Amino acid sequence: MEFKARVLEHTKGTWTIYPGLCKGCGLCMAKCPKGAISWSEVLGVYGTPAVESDDKCIACGICQMVCPDCAIYVEKKK
């Protein structure tokens, strides 16, 4: 299990996932307005796939707000 953060740099911002906290519930995927979140090869806390984002991410932070495990952190570029 990977407890360190995976930081993904995108055009609009930085998207960070903590696989050790992600249980793979998919709420972030369901709420993403751009469909920028998908399943990752990295496994989460229960051995289920964690998530990752792609460059369609607009750094709106909705995924961070709906994550019940605080596994996502989004920082918009200025």
UniProtKB/TrEMBL annotation:
The keyword Iron applies. Residues 13-42, 47-77 form the 4Fe-4S ferredoxin-type domain. The keyword Methyltransferase does not apply. It comes from the Bacteria. SUPFAM superfamilies: 4Fe-4S ferredoxins. This is 2-oxoglutarate ferredoxin oxidoreductase subunit delta. GO terms for molecular function: 2-oxoglutarate synthase activity. Keywords: 4Fe-4S, Iron, Iron-sulfur, Metal-binding, Oxidoreductase. It holds the Pfam family Fer4_7. It comes from Carboxydothermus ferrireducens DSM 11255. PANTHER family: ADENYLYLSULFATE REDUCTASE, BETA SUBUNIT (PTHR43687), FERREDOXIN III (PTHR43687:SF1). Its EC number is 1.2.7.3.
